Task: structure prediction
Amino acid sequence: MIVVMRPDATESDLERVVEKVRNLGLTPHVSRGVSRTIVGCIGDEDRLREVPMLSFPAVETIIPVEKPYKLAAREFSAADTVVKLCCNGTGGVGDGAVHVIAGPCSVEGRAMLLQVAESVKKAGAVALRGGVFKPRTSPYSFRGLGPDALEYLAEAREKTGLPVVTEVLDTRQVGIVAQTADVLQIGARNMQNFALLSEVGEVGKPVLLKRGLSATLEEFLLAAEYILSRGNRKVILCERGIRTFERALRFTLDIGAVPFLKKETHLPVLIDPSHAAGRRDLVTPIALAGVAAGADGLLVETHPDPDRARSDGDQSLTLQSFGVLMKQVERIAAALGRSLAPIAA
Ligand code: PEP
Ligand code: MN
Result:
């Protein structure tokens, strides 16, 4: 942390700041320039972060040097974190191959889920995702089938061998969802639900963390830090579009977030082209852009009859178009020396 003093700061102002820094256990290094003096503070920045240094009238600004996230930072781990979605098979998300997770926005019934599961598996998806508890903007919209849908997910896993991913909305659901799901999804609207982040940090299952609608990348990584700091190191990030002034698409996919995050953190990064696009015809090109930008995989909404889906039908691919997407993803991946992840045996 660097403390920049105002040009009119006196020697006694400087002394007070230096003493404060020293009292916090950091070592101050004073550097006098032509017009202003700065104090470089060596030591644990977190201690200084907790003190309102700007309340010293002679302090003009504070420049942090260290990242506020530690466990999520690239410096913490030179090797990429690889998150296995289930206990069998080798590899995992982050191993270089493209991992595609697919399924309906909501689990609407047993038959439809089994049909989607068989179909996405055949097309090359490595995991099945289906919403059991759905976050909906309106309380009158369909909010998921609840616990029955967990049973359908378990049956689909049994029949196909695909690990299952589903969202937890609330700390009270973590126990019941974690009993069945292989991966717990935290939705965009819950990215800063700190109690929920801490709760899933206590669970030994991977967490798929979606970026909040208006979260900065720093806030996104700090949300991941909540989970990591509770001891759960199996975190997968998912960029799903943010809210900007642009209204043509449902959200604006922040494509630059992919290469940025790949540099800034060792955690794997997925793209969700479905929520970003909000409409079926744009899902595949956005997905391809995500893979081209270096994403570790995709999260794609797929439905046997999207026009009759109970949630997010407009953006859901038919099973057939999902197959086409997979073929194109494979070609983009190959152009970059990558391949689709094999399905766990
Ligand atoms: C979803 O994945 O179906 C969903 C609700 O996503 P998000 O939290 O990104 O809006
Ligand atoms: Mn959805």
About this structure: Residues 105, 131, 135, 187-189, 210, 240, 275 surround phosphoenolpyruvate (ligand 1) (CB under 6 Å). The two ends are 50 Å apart (CA to CA). Residues 128 and 164 are 5 Å apart (CA to CA). The longest helix spans residues 319-335.
